Inverse folding.
């Protein structure tokens, strides 16, 4: 126990005297935390600029464009009768798409025929396309319900006038767990969990790199003693987990209410999740420590993995559709199940029973990586 | 002499690259891993057969018909049936399904009696991309279901389906998703995100290489190879990297546009030329950032942050115009932003020379940072060089 306490003390001391690690710990964590939240603080992408090619120039087409303009998703910045002009605006990125209204719109409606309007939407960003698509479809639904009586009258089918009273099935849609339907409220909670993992990995890896470079462990005194690997790994893990529990409170307890992110989770349950997550992450990194030949090199691997980690969580692209060989990584890297579990607890308001598969996964990782980290340190000490 | 000095720095850098397996990983294997990852992670790229559920409180022939209609839509697959909403919500929380449709009690009875009926669709929006696809899939199926009661009446009155469609929806919307008609996620994200990852590696490789050589114990050797001129050292060190990264860039273009079949309206060589400009711009910015504070352990953290932010400022998933104005302006400092603009044109438009000038010119201008970096290096190591000359003179 005395040895363990000394290892923890030596580790804290080593961290406290290492400027680059302190920079990552304090500026990295706080900087990333605030910066990412600020970057996506607008949250919802609204008023995307679009154009309308109105060949009809009728009261109906004007009414339709008014409805479109009234939606939050888009803003009509140009009305024209020239298709090429709209196309040019799209190419020059002045608009994200345009709606083509055919010249025969009103004639068709008066004659009881259907008219086709065409959305030409850029897919350079799927959010752009979603915006124009949602806005036009919504406006179309509105105007269609208004046009129904005229259509029936024009067809001279007074017998079916009762259709006007809307006996079609009403569809009610409800977006769950992200009521603002925002991009920030969707992306930032998982990103916070990933940042915890990344900065933790960077710190542990920089320290391991520093030890490898100098050829000395922070707790060199323990080398050669019984159960040295167990004590070193346990001591180091305790030290980093203690520090990161504080940052976890900052990322997952302080920032979400500050930036109005979904925050439905129970503090205690999130803490219960953080314990295996942080331990698994530290053990995982200690297991990989021989790879970090110097204190600068870890950044390559860890920063480079930031984007793949987001995809591997299954938040931005469904896990079910990923090839099996990538899905395996979801189960062996601590951040993927932890992110999913956090979203379930804090964004969706679930409880630990809903996150059971992820919790089991994390505890298994803890155990496996703990043993692997001890073996790594045992070999390291033997080599020396 | 000058030419020889440049060549000797290049040779020295090549020897360094060859001497440590670490460099092989970071300059060649990591980018190839990024290419493999980005071209395969999305499977076939299409979000389809997403598991969804039906809360069937009615348990009637019509409700079963609704389930069958929903299953016929490619985006979704009805994998679960529930008797109440609580069970469905639990399945949603456990991520067994991504959405559920509630068919209320007496739905069939009310529909046949021509009373107001409604269906409620609850979809997962904590997973925004899947949620919106699932919603679109459900709405596709529900559009058919929604006119079912009208159809019964119009059938009775002898009105054909085309007329019914015109009555129910006088204006129909046809969507033309431009550039990526099938809304394929691979085609959408693989190319830009490969380059986002690659730029992180370029930035770190360059910073690491300069950081190692500009340490006090190494700089003497490095400078003597470059005839004590920072211009030789900087350019000589960059040339092998630019060449290696350009080859990888060309290879990635061949993989993506030739083998994977992603859309490319321009020529693969023109695309590679843009990639080379981007690689040079990224190298330049890495050297410049390093020259501001040539202390590797500290500056590398900052450079890695700069690289990570490139993923956001590329503006691929969330448009930079939608961010606060200051961030939109800030994004202009990132070469990846201009690269994405240029390659969007190259990938999807023909006759675009006029639109390419600006982004490619900006990418070229980043190279001026090299000149500033050389001046900064000269200034910072002035004292050191003086000592060196003094020592040499005395020896």
């Amino acid at each position: 126990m005395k040895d363990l306490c000394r290892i923890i003390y030596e580790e804290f001391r080593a961290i406290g005297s290492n400027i680059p690690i302190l920079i990552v710990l304090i500026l990295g964590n706080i900087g990333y935390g605030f910066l990412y939240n600020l970057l996506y603080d607008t949250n919802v992408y609204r008023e995307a600029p679009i154009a309308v090619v109105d060949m009809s120039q009728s009261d109906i087409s004007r009414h339709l464009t008014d409805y479109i303009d009234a939606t939050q998703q888009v803003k009509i910045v140009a009305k024209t009768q020239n298709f090429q002009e709209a196309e040019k605006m799209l190419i020059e990125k002045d608009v994200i798409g345009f709606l083509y209204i055919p010249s025969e719109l009103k004639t068709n409606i008066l004659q009881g025929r259907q008219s086709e309007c065409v959305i030409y939407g850029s897919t350079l960003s799927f959010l752009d396309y979603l915006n124009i698509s949602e806005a036009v479809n919504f406006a179309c639904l509105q105007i269609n319900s208004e046009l129904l009586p005229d259509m029936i009258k024009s067809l001279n089918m007074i017998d079916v006038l009762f259709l006007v009273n809307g006996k079609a099935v009403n569809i009610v849609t409800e977006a769950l767990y992200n009521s603002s339907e925002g991009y920030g409220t969707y992306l930032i909670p998982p990103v916070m969990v990933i940042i915890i993992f990344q900065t933790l990995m960077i710190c542990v890896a920089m320290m391991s790199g520093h030890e490898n470079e100098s050829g000395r462990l922070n707790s060199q005194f323990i080398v050669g003693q019984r159960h040295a690997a167990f004590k070193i790994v346990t001591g180091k893990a305790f030290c980093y987990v203690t520090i990161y529990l504080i940052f976890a409170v900052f990322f997952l307890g302080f920032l979400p209410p500050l930036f109005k992110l979904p925050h439905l989770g129970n503090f205690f349950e999130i803490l219960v999740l953080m314990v295996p997550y942080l331990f698994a992450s530290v053990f995982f990194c200690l297991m990989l420590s021989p790879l970090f030949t110097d204190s600068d090199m870890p950044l390559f691997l860890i920063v480079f993995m930031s984007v793949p980690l987001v995809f591997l969580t299954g938040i931005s692209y469904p896990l079910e559709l990923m090839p099996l060989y990538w899905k395996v990584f979801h189960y062996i890297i601590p951040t993927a199940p932890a992110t999913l579990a956090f979203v379930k607890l804090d964004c969706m308001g679930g409880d630990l029973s809903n996150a059971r598969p992820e919790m089991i996964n994390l505890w298994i990782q803890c155990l496996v990586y703990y043993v692997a980290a001890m073996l790594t340190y045992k070999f390291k000490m033997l080599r020396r | 002499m000058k030419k020889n000095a440049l060549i000797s720095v290049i040779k020295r850098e090549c020897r360094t690259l060859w001497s440590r397996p670490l460099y092989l990983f970071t300059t060649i294997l990591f980018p190839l891993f990024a290419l493999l990852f980005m071209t395969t992670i999305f499977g076939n790229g299409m979000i389809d057969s997403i598991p969804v559920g039906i809360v069937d409180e009615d348990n009637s022939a019509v409700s079963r018909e609704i389930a069958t209609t929903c299953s016929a839509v490619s985006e979704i697959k009805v994998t679960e049936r529930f008797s109440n909403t609580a069970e469905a919500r639990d399945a949603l929380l456990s991520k067994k399904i991504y959405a559920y449709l509630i068919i209320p009690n007496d739905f069939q009875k009310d529909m046949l009696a021509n009373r107001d009926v409604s269906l409620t669709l609850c979809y997962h929006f904590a997973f925004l991309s899947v949620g919106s696809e699932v919603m679109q899939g459900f709405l596709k199926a529900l559009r058919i279901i929604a006119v079912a009661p009208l159809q019964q009446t119009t059938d009775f009155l002898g009105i054909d389906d085309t007329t019914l469609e015109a009555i129910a929806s006088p204006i129909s919307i046809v969507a033309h998703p431009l550039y990526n008609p099938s809304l394929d996620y691979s085609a959408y994200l693989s190319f830009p995100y490969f380059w986002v990852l690659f730029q992180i590696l370029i930035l770190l490789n360059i910073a690491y290489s300069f950081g190692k050589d500009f340490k006090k114990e190494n700089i003497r050797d490095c400078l003597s190879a470059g005839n004590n001129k920072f211009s030789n050292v900087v350019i000589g060190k960059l040339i092998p990297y630019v060449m290696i990264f350009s080859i990888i860039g060309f290879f990635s273009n061949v993989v993506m546009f030739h083998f994977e079949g992603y859309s490319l309206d321009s020529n693969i060589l023109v695309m590679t030329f843009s990639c080379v400009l981007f690689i040079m711009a990224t190298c330049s910015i890495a050297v410049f950032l390093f020259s501001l504070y040539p202390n590797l352990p500290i500056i590398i953290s900052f450079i890695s942050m700069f690289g990570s932010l490139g993923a956001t400022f590329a503006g691929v998933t969330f448009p930079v115009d939608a961010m606060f104005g200051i961030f939109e302006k800030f994004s202009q400092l990132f070469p990846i932003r201009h690269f994405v603009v240029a390659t969007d044109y190259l990938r999807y438009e023909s006759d675009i020379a006029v639109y390419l000038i600006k982004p490619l010119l900006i990418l070229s201008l980043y190279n001026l940072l090299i000149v500033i970096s050389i001046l900064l290096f000269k200034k910072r190591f002035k004292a050191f060089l003086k000592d060196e000359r003094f020592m040499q003179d005395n020896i």
About this structure: Residues 2-42+184-394 of chain B form one domain.
